[in-house]
User: Fold this.
Amino acid sequence: MDPKNIKMRVVYSSNKPKMATFATAVGEAFKCQVDAVPPAFPCDKERIVVLLMNASKDPDDALKRFCRELNGQRAYNVCIVADGDKDSVPVKKVKEALREAGTNVIEDVYSVNGGSAGLLGMFNKKISLDERRDIVKWVTSTIEAL
Assistant:
């Protein structure tokens, strides 16, 4: 399966500008739509949704609602990119909500350093070429494993 020709969507739930940059990097690499949670249009029969989230605080209401609504008709698979500890309680809560909604959750979670929030984050929204290459490589290998 060619990862570049798959129906997919990238969504992110974080107020850190660097996380939006990670999401955009994946979206550009796979030529797919990138949205903040909640997305402007619901997912519809996506083969995979890449969800970028903050792993250090509980999911906000918008992310919880998005996960509850992401059933098997809207997305067959979801992979998670976590800003911080990929084994954190917030990541586990999101995985559980996605499973309860009826979508397949990829067990392997990719961890990134999403930088700072607020004013400090405004000056730290760039990602390095290595960070860009690594996240695209991880998403590619995740898609190929489906």
Q: What stands out?
A: The longest helix spans residues 129-144.
